[in-house]
Amino acid sequence: MPRHIAIVEDEPAIRENYADLFSRQGYRVSSYAGRGAAERDFALALPDLVILDIGLNEEIDGGFELCRSLRARSETLPIIFLTARDSDFDTVAGLRLGADDYLTKDVSLPQLSARVAALFRRIQALQQAAGENGSERIEAGDLSLDMDRLRATWRARDLTLTVTDIWILHALVRHPGHVRSRDQLMEAANTYVDSATITSHIKRLRRKFQQLDPQFDQIEAVYGAGYRWNC
Description:
Blueprint: E1 4-8, H1 12-24, E2 28-32, H2 35-44, E3 49-52, H3 62-73, E4 79-83, H4 88-96, E5 101-104, H5 109-132, E6 137-140, E7 143-146, E8 151-154, E9 157-159, H6 163-173, H7 182-188, H8 195-212, E10 219-222, E11 226-229
Parallel strand pairs: 1-2, 1-3, 3-4, 4-5
Antiparallel strand pairs: 6-7, 7-8, 8-9, 10-11
Helix pairs in contact: 6-7, 6-8
């Protein structure tokens, strides 16, 4: 069965352009002009990936609200913001709400297609890795990372992680103490995002640990080199 992509975009021409792109690539596509219609369908069944604009008709931050609602239902559903709003504030806000990627509408269609494909590859790669190793489970101090279930706990308490959080964490804890550059983190995920986005994801990941443990300091930034996991 083809993967299902939902596009929530209030500009008809843009929405149809994106829908046509992914339909031609073999995806099943659902398109929505606003948050209400999307939420009604999502309440029945979630798609495999969601592409969101931020401003939806009269709702200036409708996409943010929809992202928050989706994350409450699924931590691992891939979500991409695709918007004309390019401020650092909006980018950080989108990533903090749990988006896996944040793109502006000047992105080319081939680049957009590549980012969507990369997100799907992340999920497939993680699941295949777990399948090949039975149930891959990594124990690193107080961290337990179960790749089969895409689940992590810190000091026996559940962490609510997105797919992006999981692959970053997996890349770090597989080699404790080793510095992983931003390029290596991207390579491990079989994708490409800019370095600023990697930095934002690392900050978000740290924040999730610190919500459970204010003293958490296992993810260390190594100036000019990248990041490492310290046990």
